[in-house]
Amino acid sequence: MNKKTWLVIIGILVIGVIGVVGGVYLMTRPTSELDSSSNTQGTSPNQQEENNSNQNNEDNNSNKKIAIIYFSATGTTKKVAEYIKNATSGDLIEIIPKEKYTDDDLNYANDNSRTSQEQNDSNARPEIANNINTNDYDVIYLGYPIWWGNVPKIILTFLDSNNLNDKTIIPFCTSGSTPITTSFNTLKNYNKNVTWIEGKRFSSNTSQNEINSWVNSLSY
Predict the structure, then answer these.
(1) At what angle do helices 45-61 and 208-217 cross, to 10 degrees?
(2) Mean pLDDT per segment of 10 residues, for the chain of length 220 residues?
(3) Which of 11, 12, 130, 212 has a CA that sits 20 to 30 A from residue 84's CA?
(4) What's this model's pTM, rounded to 2 decimal places?
(5) What are 95-145's pLDDT values in tens digits?
(6) How far apart are the first and last CA of the chain?
(7) C-alpha dihedral sign at 54, 140, 70, 85
(8) Partners of 67 in the beta sheet?
């Protein structure tokens, strides 16, 4: 064979050896490396960081015993409470008034309506019909509608009726537009032995996905 033929043969052999070595590397590449590449494909660094943060919050919160305790006169707050139950797998507990609120009671335009009188009376504490045991819970989501810009007085009855010291309470409220700020300040000043986490206001068209995102953003 001439020199040119030998060079061609050597070139073919070198290419073949490179191909074999590359194939062996891919076959023996660590599984974790392959998984890492596939899991992060198409995910931005910010999104990946948010996903990791949410996962950490879920892990931190998973060891806590959770209750969703709520008062709802018209059903709006009840729906949000049920969404939170779905997101947390906590126990759902309703605050049931001994005297049910009627449409006339809820008439904001009437200064003599039951709710108008209660909200204007600093000593008003409407009775609760059911016994609520909070002893076994570490974290309580506390739900209520906004009445006259503030928390309904029956929620204060609940706070008076239970030893909530050293528990973590996360308020959530429903309203047309009024934010949670005033009611949250009322609650945290009412019992300063509680670890209060500022909650959130929800509207009547709140979705399960919105609740899921909120719950996953919390750390307690």
Answers:
(1) 80
(2) 51 51 43 33 47 50 89 98 98 98 95 96 98 96 98 98 96 97 98 96 97 96
(3) 130
(4) 0.74
(5) 999 999 999 999 989 999 999 999 999 999 999 999 999 999 999 999 999
(6) 80
(7) positive
(8) 91, 140
Per the CB < 8 A criterion, the answer to whether 92 and 142 are in contact is no
Calculate the alpha carbon distances from 219 to 63, 145, 169 in Å.
Answer: 12, 24, 12
Cβ pair 103, 97 in contact under 8 A: no
Contact (Cβ atoms closer than 8 angstroms) between residue 71 and residue 81: no
- In the chain, the amino acid numbered 105 is D
Contacts of 30 (CB under 8 A, 6+ apart): none
Residue 115: DSSP 8-state: H
User: Which residues face 69 on adjacent strands?
Assistant: 93, 142
Would you say 98 and 127 are in contact if contact means Cβ atoms under 8 Å apart? yes
**CA angle, 67 as apex, 66 and 70 as ends, to 5°?**
150
**Sequence-ordered alpha helix ranges (H) in 29-163:** 31-40, 45-61, 76-88, 114-119, 153-161
Q: Where are the domains of the chain?
A: 65-217
- Residues 46, 47, 50: CA angle, nearest 5 degrees: 90
pLDDT attached to residue 63: 85
Superfamily of domain 65-217: Flavodoxin domain (3.40.50.360)
